Amino acid sequence: MCRDFSPTPVDPAVLDRLLEAARRAPSAGSSQGWAFLVLERPEDLRRFWEAAADEEWRSRPNLPGLLRAPVAVVPYCSPQVYLDRYSEPDKAWRGLASADRWAVPYWTVDVAFATMLLLLAAADEGLGALFFGRDAEAYERLSSTFGVPPDWQPIGTVLLGWPAGEGGPRGSALRGLRPVDEVVHRGGWRPAGGAPR
């Protein structure tokens, strides 16, 4: 995750490739209930930051590198797209026409898949990328500012651009990755370093 961006613009053809990669994500019932608000004009980025972050947040010492990112992508999902899809004849038998019937909200899972493909495609292009979230009020302001219909929910924001400076890990990234034996449970769930239960 990059936290220090160069203001150098991202070529539109590169951005189109990233979005095409994201569009190919798997989707429950091929519902494809995700969309991306893409902001790349300086005026749109200014409006994004005004809506997504108050003056105090924008003045934090680590923020100048983020504020220079030339592209912001806000991934959205719509539960209603999935409820409508699972009301169609080939899916209605599943009984998933209301959100409370879903054990897992696949609208969120699917947009997360699409967002991960966007991040991976950015890395393949040599771009820096950062996924981050804001509070519900900030996203309400953002959705209102850019005319997003109320049935679409944001899951976060992806900043894209060319890395500036060192751009190495800092902050939470310094925690590192959990050891594989704490993450992988073969043959049954087990405590770290223990035998399967």
Describe the protein in words:
This protein has helices at 12-23, 42-52, 55-58, 64-67, 79-85, 106-124, 136-145, 180-183; strands at residues 34-39, 71-77, 128-132, 153-154, 157-161. 36% of the residues lie in helices and 13% in strands. The model has no long low-confidence stretch (mean pLDDT 90). It contains eight helices and five strands, in the order αβαααβααβαββα. The chain is α+β, with helices and mostly antiparallel strands. It is globular and about 50 Å long. The protein has a single domain (12-171), classed as NADH Oxidase (3-Layer(aba) Sandwich). Strands 1, 2, 3, 4 and 5 form a five-stranded antiparallel sheet that branches.
Total domain modules: 1
Helix content: 25-40%
Uncertain ranges:
none
From the spread of the alpha carbons, the general shape counts as globular
Task: Summarize the model shown.
The protein is of the alpha+beta class and 197 residues long.
Please describe the topology of this protein:
Blueprint lengths: L11 H12 L10 E6 L2 H11 L2 H4 L5 H4 L3 E7 L1 H7 L20 H19 L3 E5 L3 H10 L7 E2 L2 E5 L18 H4 L14
Helix pairs in contact: 1-6, 2-7
Main attributes?
197 residues, alpha+beta, NADH Oxidase, 5-stranded antiparallel β-sheet, 36% helix
